[in-house]
Amino acid sequence: MKYLVYFVTVFFLSQQIVGQVNKKSKRQPTEVTASYPKSIIQGFNMKLRMNSELMLGKEALGAYEGVSPSSEYECDDWLGLEYPVHSCVDHLYGGGPILGGIVNGVRYVSAAYYPSDAEGDFQQSSFDKDKRHIFTSSIDDTLYNSTRTGFYKYAMNRKGVDDDNDGKTDEDMFDGLDNDGDWNELTDDLGSDGLPDTLEIGCRGGFEPYYNPDPANDNWDSTSYDVCKAERGTTPYKKNSRYLYTQGNKLPDNGEQHVDEDYATISDNDILLFSTDTVATLSWHNPIGIKIHQRSFAWKDKWLEGILPIEYTITNFSNNIIHDVYMGMICDMDVGWVNGSSFASRNYSGYYPNERTAYIHNPLDRYATPAGVTLLGSSIPFNALRIVYNWYEFEADDCGSSPYNEDEMLECMKCGPNEHNCIKPDQSSHSLNDTRFLLSFGPFEELKPGDTLRFTVAFVVGNDLRNHENSLSGRARKALIFHQNGYAVPTPPPSPRLQVSKEQESVTLSWEHVGNNPSANLNGNTFEGYRVYRIDSDTLDISKATLLAQYDVDNAYKYGFQTGIETTFVDAAIRKGNIYWYAVTSYSVVAHTSHWNGSSYDTLVIEGVESSISENAQKVFNSFGPSTQSGEVLVVPNPYRGSEYYVNGDGFEGLEREWTPYKRMVRFIHLPSKATIRIYTIAGEVVATFTHDESAGDTEGQHDFHLFTESGRPLANGIFVFTVESEYGKQIGKFVIAR
Prior knowledge:
Blueprint: E1 6-8, E2 11-13, E3 39-42, E4 47-51, H1 75-78, E5 81-82, E6 89-90, E7 94-103, E8 106-111, H2 126-131, E9 134-137, H3 185-188, E10 201-202, E11 205-206, H4 227-231, E12 270-276, E13 290-296, E14 307-316, E15 322-332, E16 336-337, E17 348-352, E18 357-361, E19 371-378, E20 386-392, H5 406-414, E21 436-447, E22 452-461, H6 472-484, E23 498-502, E24 507-511, E25 525-536, E26 545-552, E27 568-571, E28 578-596, E29 601-606, E30 618-622, E31 634-636, E32 665-669, E33 674-681, E34 686-693, E35 702-706, E36 718-726, E37 729-737
Antiparallel strand pairs: 1-2, 3-4, 4-5, 6-16, 7-8, 7-15, 9-12, 10-11, 12-13, 13-14, 14-22, 15-21, 17-18, 18-19, 19-22, 20-21, 23-24, 24-27, 25-26, 25-28, 28-29, 28-30, 31-32, 32-35, 33-34, 33-36, 36-37
């Protein structure tokens, strides 16, 4: 079943409730409580499943044991980490954060996922479940409306925006709570639309104190019903849910004046959720008393493909100090193509120390691509911590083979007695199995009650393991640099100011050089060059753009063609009667040298970003030109042999794949600016008459005739006569249709 949508001004949340089905025989919790593992998919071309219990991967949904997708698009709905989208290649069965420490001399471990049985220690409290605490936000979300009555007249979600004019920016998290303590029930308890009843409009119109006192039907009232639902023929709901009916519910709701109004969204899709280790715990588990906020980011930009950062904020809300803290990620990354043979046992694991990346790879399956977890940052720099990497297959002496024993788990996280060799040697690529890894780091000396620790990881997927930008190691380095630069997405340099002039048989483009303009270098963006495009179309259809030329800087990056910069281009390959669009874009290359790999600084060249073709596109019509005397009018093509085999995308009728009989046409060219054209059969019967008048907006010097009679019948094969009558006299000619 699905939860009802709880729409809250900017965030809107609809999570699917699913059962906990697992191939690895889970243990039972000590108390039987309703379990609501609400899940959501994060990402665009790489999609990661996560749920409100901090569990990641396929297990966040509940495994579909023995189920194969009926189509490639169904994979998107139930894989753990799919890349690329619609590929049916999975990369993550289950995983999540793990934390261990010592409380009053006793070792404790809490994990969102144990690969031995696919269970976890984190759940949301009953209040959290009712509140549906998975929140989403996007930098594209805005509620800007200068005429709107109420709050949020400014673009929301963006860094530095004080949208409630309280003098603060970025002070709240988007967690549905009043983080900065400025919510006031008397003035703010207006519901998620931020409007009082008197300003609302609903299914029965505007406010009327007796007949329509709650126009939007958003007032919390334990006795009355939602009349709008009843009018739509659905079962009326009592308005007794504080989370669906938000006005007057005595709770701070997103959309009210002083709740979550100034959070800073980072990406095209931020997802925030949080959970604790103290609710409905497993029989063997002793909760530490921690709460974890998990915030993940995803971008649509192609140059960030295969990278998905996740930030964890861990708060000690117990009354005890946690000593000798280690934390990290534990992952069961089954990599393989789900439509092929069983792939879980075809994997091996390794670790790249320079990129701080643990990975798993399937070298056998044709479509499989390696995936891993990169440590991006923590509350203490990693060079002051011990990083521990272990892979295991659940043999008797493996880490994680007995997760019931918290002493053993914490010992594995701490590296154990062999503290000088904390990175386990890579698993052999010739010894494949159903393998997992534990990537941890510490120690953090103590975590006092109320204190927080933070760490950030990125799930990365590469086309292969190493040696180029889109490999696993290349994307891990890119993720490190991107994180260190504050997730600053490069901004494309502006398109240059373009001038287009048409000569008799050519078009000349000239533009101003923007390479030295400071606005061409934003967010680490470095201007690189120009690209010249032409679109052969009546309309500005960017999908049909053809690259005519590229000019780039000859610099140390050795990026592109190294041609040097030009600011003019002449297109002599144009045809009479055609319409063209021209554009010149600016593009960039991004280079950083801020990542220390242990022995030197990495220099990483990231794929550049490009301004939009539509930014300066200009239209050019290469007309035949009007005639100024009789006898110059021609019909093209003549003879006409139009059919789906005749057109090839270079003629008047467009692409063959888009051709229909209604696109059949001949073109009259070199017409006077005003003329009357008549079409006759060879027997002298008039089949069509039309007027060409450029003063009324007709195209200069030409007119298209779609081969239909005035009564709507297609012209048959044969010879046809035409006349052109104008101020210059009368011209008679012939054309042939031969299909």
